[in-house]
Amino acid sequence: MKILVTGGAGFIGSALIRHIIGHTQDSVVNVDKLTYAGSLEALEDAASSPRYQFEHLDICNRAGLDRAFKHHQPHAVMHLAAESHVDRSIVGPAAFVETNVVGTYTLLEASYAYWRELDTTAQQRFRFHHVSTDEVFGDLGSSAGQFTETSNYAPSSPYSASKAAADHLVGAWQRTYGLPTLITHCSNNYGPYQFPEKLIPVMIANALAGSPLSLFGDGLHERDWLYVDDHVRALHAVISCAAAGSTWNIGGDSVQRNIDVVHTLCELLQELAPARPAGVLHYKDLIRYVDDRPGHDRRYCINASKIRDELGWVPQEGFQTGMRKTVQWYLANRDWCGQRLAAAGVEQDNRL
After folding, report:
1. Is 159 a catalytic residue?
2. Do the Cβ atoms of 196 and 341 come closer than 8 Å?
3. pLDDT tens sequence across 170-188
4. Is 20 left (phi over 0), alpha (psi -120 to 50) or beta?
5. What is the CATH number of domain 2-195+226-255+295-318?
6. Is 135 among the residues known to form the active site?
7. Structure pTM?
């Protein structure tokens, strides 16, 4: 396949492209606006492949999308371009509506116009794969339940509401226009090249700098953690094998409380980075609690039995092995976080 990937310079998008180029025979057209969170450095190896092409393009640019579709003639679209940081969505929701809702609408329209001109065989082969989040389902609270593919939508933040809106648009283009779509919902991703505003990379960076490790509320919020390389293997399995109109949950089967995630990081740093900042006996001594985030969901948990049973995907990384790999990568690339923040012109936010 030739796959048009939107947001391919982002954290998950770049991991997906590295997987496609490194482990399949498929080719990639990377469509990315290159916002503050995009990093072409994460694609240096893939970019040397003749199966990789890059389009510097905003998904809200309909004319640019039409040109890209006409020029590259993709067999599938994997849509990962999104604003994704909950705290940013609370402070400035407009960008999330623009990219996640208007951008998805624009991409759907361009994809549909392209798809209508394909011959019958190519139409049947084509897929529009929208990569979404478990946050669209809202808060499990104190329940021991899990999100399934049929869970009700109950988004809490402007971010999750914008992703829920995008999901509904994708479903409508399938139902009304017949566009062959797929939707996947994933749990919290972690791994190399994640922009340092998310929990794990910012905690690593702050710990190494001797800065506070600030946790929202009581730190007992629970999330299912999924190593990014496992996620992208699942995404490729879905685009390659799944029937049009289907939805899939992708989770790591690794539910952890935020405080336990940070404790795990501290223990790994204690072992792997023993030259601690001055005055720090143990990295965990840097942990602080701050006022909770508005509308903060208490618990997410994914039931991924469908993709395991029907497509044979299972995560290869457990939480401990994935975290060790992640910490080792950030320690080996200590300057990357600071360089990304400086290039983006943003200050590090340690409230997570």
Report:
1. yes
2. yes
3. 999 999 999 999 999 999 9
4. alpha
5. 3.40.50.720
6. yes
7. 0.95
